[in-house]
C-alpha cells in the first residue's frame, strides 16, 4: 500500500528523517470530509510515492494526539507537506483541486531536486552538515538572524561572524591551511586570549536540540612561522545562555549562571569533518529567541581558539496550543 498509517511518534519521526519529502494526512474517523477526499489522496499517493524520496502518510488525530498538537492541527482534514523534516506547506480542508495542485507541485520540485543532486557539493545554496542530525529534528540554522550576530574578542584579520553559519563546506575540509580569500578566512579565531563570546539571535521562536561545532585547528606546518601560543585550538568548554537581549560581556557571563555548560572531549570530534555534536538538555531550550555561546577555553595551551562552523539543530517555529478540533466542511451538529 502506498500510504503509510502512522501508529507512533517514533515511526513518523523516522519517516521524516529517511524521506526527503513527506505528506501527512491528519484525519478522524468521524470526519465526513476526510472520508470524501480519501480516494483522491490515495490516488495521488499511488502515482507519486517514491521510496525514501516522497512518502505519503495518514495520521488519525484522535489516536495520535501528540503529533496533532505538535503540528498545530486545529481541524480535519489537514494535509501537511514536509521537506527534510521541516514543515513546508499546509492544506486545510477537503479541497481536491488545491490538494492536487500542491502535491503535483511537490512532485515537480522533487524531480528538479534529483537533477540538481549532483551539484550539491559545488557550493552556493547547499547546506553542509558535519554531524548526524537527531531523529525528529532538522537543521534550523536558516532561522539565524545574521544581521544581529555579535562575536566578542575575534581576530579582525580572520572571518566575520556570519561565516560561521555559511551553508557551504568549510575550506578546512580540503586541507587548505589558512584558507584566506582576499585577506579573509572562512572561519573565526580569538584575539587577545582563547575566549570567544557569540550572540545568536533567531528570526522566530525555536526549540534547540543540539549544536554542531566545527573546528579545524591549524597544524604546526600551517603555522610554522608562528609561536606555539599562536597555533589555534579547538573549543573545549562551552557555556550556553538563552533568551538574552544582547551579547554578554565576559565579566557579565561570570556572574550569570549558564543554562548549560558542556565539555567537548577529544573523542567527540569527527576526524573527517572536524565537527563535534553537542546535545543539549532539550527541556531547557524550548521557546528560544536567542542563544549565547561562550567558548570558555580550548583543548591546549594556546591563546588562540578557532571555530569554522556552527549549525543549530532543533525545531523552528512556535507551537500553538491545541485548540478545539473542527470538521472543515461539516456544519456543527452533523
From TrEMBL:
Residues 129-332 form the PITH domain. One of its GO terms (cellular component) is cytoplasm. Pfam families: PITH, Thioredoxin. Residues 159-186 are annotated as: Disordered. Residues 1-108 form the Thioredoxin domain. InterPro entries: Galactose-bd-like_sf (IPR008979), PITH_dom (IPR010400), PITH_dom_sf (IPR037047), Thioredoxin-like_sf (IPR036249), Thioredoxin_CS (IPR017937), Thioredoxin_domain (IPR013766). Keywords: Disulfide bond. PANTHER family: THIOREDOXIN-LIKE PROTEIN 1 (PTHR46115). Belongs to the thioredoxin family. This is Thioredoxin. The lineage of its organism: Eukaryota, Fungi, Dikarya, Ascomycota, Pezizomycotina.
Amino acid at each position: 500500500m502506498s500510504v503509510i498509517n502512522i501508529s507512533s511518534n517514533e515511526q513518523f519521526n523516522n519517516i521524516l528523517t529517511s524521506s526527503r519529502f513527506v505528506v501527512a494526512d491528519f484525519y478522524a474517523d468521524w470526519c465526513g470530509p476526510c472520508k470524501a477526499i480519501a480516494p483522491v489522496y490515495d490516488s495521488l499517493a499511488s502515482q507519486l510515492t517514491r521510496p525514501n524520496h516522497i512518502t505519503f502518510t495518514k495520521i488519525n488525530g484522535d489516536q495520535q494526539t501528540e503529533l496533532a498538537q505538535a503540528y498545530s492541527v486545529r481541524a480535519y482534514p489537514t494535509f501537511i507537506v514536509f521537506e527534510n523534516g521541516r514543515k513546508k506547506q499546509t492544506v486545510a480542508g477537503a479541497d481536491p483541486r488545491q490538494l492536487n495542485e500542491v502535491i503535483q507541485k511537490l512532485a515537480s520540485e522533487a524531480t528538479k531536486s534529483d537533477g540538481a543532486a549532483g551539484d550539491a557539493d559545488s557550493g552556493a545554496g547547499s547546506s553542509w552538515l558535519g554531524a548526524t542530525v537527531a531523529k525528529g529534528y532538522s537543521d534550523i540554522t536558516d532561522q539565524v538572524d545574521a544581521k544581529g550576530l555579535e562575536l566578542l574578542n575575534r581576530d579582525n584579520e580572520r572571518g566575520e561572524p556570519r561565516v560561521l553559519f555559511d551553508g557551504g563546506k568549510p575550506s578546512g575540509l580540503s586541507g587548505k591551511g589558512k584558507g584566506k580569500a582576499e585577506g579573509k578566512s572562512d572561519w573565526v579565531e580569538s584575539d587577545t586570549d582563547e575566549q570567544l563570546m557569540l550572540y545568536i539571535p533567531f528570526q522566530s521562536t525555536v526549540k534547540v536540540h543540539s549544536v554542531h561545532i566545527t573546528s579545524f585547528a591549524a597544524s604546526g606546518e600551517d603555522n610554522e612561522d608562528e609561536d606555539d601560543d599562536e597555533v589555534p585550538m579547538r573549543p573545549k568548554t562551552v557555556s550556553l545562555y538563552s533568551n538574552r537581549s544582547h551579547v554578554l560581556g565576559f565579566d557579565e557571563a561570570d556572574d550569570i549562571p549558564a543554562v548549560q555548560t558542556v565539555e567537548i572531549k577529544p573523542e567527540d570530534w569527527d576526524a573527517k569533518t572536524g565537527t563535534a555534536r553537542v546535545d543539549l538538555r532539550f527541556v531547557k531550550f524550548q521557546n528560544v529567541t536567542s542563544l549565547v555561546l561562550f567558548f570558555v577555553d580550548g583543548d591546549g595551551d594556546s591563546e588562540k581558539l578557532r571555530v569554522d562552523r556552527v549549525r543549530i539543530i532543533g525545531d523552528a517555529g512556535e507551537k500553538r496550543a491545541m485548540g478545539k478540533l473542527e470538521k472543515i466542511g461539516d456544519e456543527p451538529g452533523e
